Amino acid sequence: MKKVTLKISVFVTFFCCISMHSQGTLKEYKKAIAVDSLFRDKVFNTPSTFYWVSTNELWYVNNSKEGKEYLFVNAETKQQKPVFNHKKLADVLTKKTNETVNYNNINIKNLKLDSESNNLNFNFKNLQLSCNLDTYDLTILDTIKEKKDRDSRYWGDFFDETKNKNVPSPDVSKIAYIKNSNLYIKDIKTNAETQLSYDGTKGNYYSTYIKWSPDSKKIMAYKVKPGEDHKIYFIESSPKDQLQPKLQTRDYLKPGDELPFKSPQLFLIDSKEHIKIPTDEFSSQYAISRIDWRADSRAFTFEYNQRGHQAYKVINVNAETGKLSVLINETSKTFIDYSSKKFRYDIEDGKQIVWTSERDGWNHVYLYNGDGTVKKQLTKGKWVVRKVIHVDEKNKEIYFTASGLDRNQDPYFIHYCKIDFDGKNFKRLTSENGNHKVTFSKDYKYFVDQYSRVDKPATTLLKTTDGANKLLEIQKGDDSELIKQGWKAPEVFTAKGRDGETDIWGIIVRPTTFDPNRSYPIIEYIYAGPHDSFVPKDFRPYYWSMTSLAELGFIVVQIDGMGTSNRSKAFHDVCWQNLKDGGFPDRKLWMKAAAKKYPYMNVDKVGIHGTSAGGQNAGAALVFNSDFYDVAVASCGCHDNRMDKMWWNEQFMGYPIGPHYEACSNVENAAQLGGNLMLILGEVDDNVDPASTMQFANALIKANKDFELVTVPGMAHSAGGDYGERKRKDFFVKHLMNVKPPSWEAIYNLENLVKK
């Protein structure tokens, strides 16, 4: 009897624990759906945009607890005040437009205040209005024509070199144009036509994008040898305007495809001389860009990006002789991050050149002489220049953002700085512990500095550029209402990477119902694209990819492993010709370190999800890293880099195509897959070829692997939309919690279920 009683007692205790600590139930699903709206509009005094209207005055809209508040700031008086009486303006707007306008939700744009007349001009819906702020008389100045939606150009469309209009000379005496694949000019007064080139053919023609020299005495025109015409095709199964499916097609260059070849040519107008430019210095082209004449017409320059991105040149062509000289020759044994880090600014018509480079292992600013010799490295140290934002030629200063300046701060935090042309007088404009966003006055004398962290809402300050002195605290973020809703700030967590020395940074997101006595499976949200870093640094109440999932009873994390950007060059180079790495060795160590500190993180139950490059990463987690990851949901992934867009993949995987592409392919290595995989695909995805996912699925089928394939009709490049989100949640609950998810009717359509 004692044994029976003991067994019953143990069973009751176990049952109670399961009930108290259940995860993935209907209650959690309902909370997961609700958190977005629950956390929305619960943080106040965090304005997002600031408009300088003069050198010392600005206005902005504050999200106060009472509603929208339009405020005017004067940097000289260090004061701010309402731009207008909100109730009075709402009343006159209501009367004038016959629409109810609430004083705490006025929506006006393009504010301009005339201090002499005290008239405020602004746009309200389709009206341009003027309000006298003494009398609140409101006058309609004009109606605003509705802007027609421009046809959004598809990112991959081939550039048509034949469609430019005729190009007039700067002195308007002649026009230049292309006829029969060759360059012609015509005298505007006499209508006399002159053929300048005779070597253009249909297979190697002159582009219509012609550039006259400023003195109208010379022309740069380039010949184009067309590249490969590569298209992708997909079926839109369920178009809205017809019953039958549609075949869609897109221009889409892939790694290894043949590219156009451009050869700039020089023409002297008076002598009608054609000077051919040798192509030896730019013979293996990915791109020729920024073809610009010097202001004094002495030369033109262009930039040459070598195929494979291991060389990048700035080339100068003498306008009298056609002699070519290389001003800058940037090289790398791995890759040059031209798409994210390259910056060039020519000072005084090319007497000096500001340039950025990672040649010393960190992204820094260099100053070149006009002849191409390096004058000086302006910034230096184990930190990175993120972006050059302004070159002040008059005061000989360079403004830029930087990361990694402070040992006691997150190395990804953006800070603002400036330095002289001689590399001296380095000055910090921001130093507070947070991620900064600055809006300068028109003359750069003042600036608005707003900074935040994932665990601290934004503080907004007005400062002077000279000395970075604080003049006024414009606003201080208030998250008290958010916290009342049960919101928990993400935790910033660091651990050592694979080398045992480098700090790897990420965040931990916990559910509002977090209980340290529970055991939580871990889900990583991943995007390891090498073109940037991705772990959030600013304050946000809600993370679409993490917050809702956490509410189901998971710990959700996001990590920037090696191979991503914005750290040292060595940190970044891990990705080169090795995208399958994905920073996974660092991610595993990071999660193990977090689980050691927080035993409630169950490192034996780990899921992962991502989209696009993150979809490739999520697939690679189970193909190459199933020793650690158990469940993955991969959306619209580029599962073989040979199937994806050329520019992104050749940037990091290199050219020519080699065995390393196959080694990194989820498709070619599908037989290695372990764990539970869901593939989500938009059938009309024109960012990543949908065939990439289908080829992965085909390889998995051939390898007798069990997986789920979710294809969403009519959907483009995405994580799967609402349908994909529901499938993703259920998949993780089922395979990480071993819990059968509630029915969708119960979760999403409870009222309809009750009526039935």
From TrEMBL:
Membrane-traversing stretches: none
InterPro entries in the cross-refs: AB_hydrolase_fold, Peptidase_S9_cat, Peptidase_S9B_N, Serine_Prot_S9B/DPPIV
Superkingdom in the source lineage: Bacteria
All residue ranges annotated as the Peptidase S9 prolyl oligopeptidase catalytic domain in the record: 543-736
UniProt domain Dipeptidylpeptidase IV N-terminal: residue ranges: 169-457
Coiled-coil stretches noted in the UniProt entry, renumbered to this chain: none
PANTHER family from the UniProt entry: BLR1971 PROTEIN, PROTEASE FAMILY S9B,C DIPEPTIDYL-PEPTIDASE IV-RELATED
Protein name per its UniProtKB record: DPP IV N-terminal domain-containing protein
Organism, scientific name: Thalassobellus suaedae
Organism phylogeny: Bacteria, Pseudomonadati, Bacteroidota, Flavobacteriia, Flavobacteriales
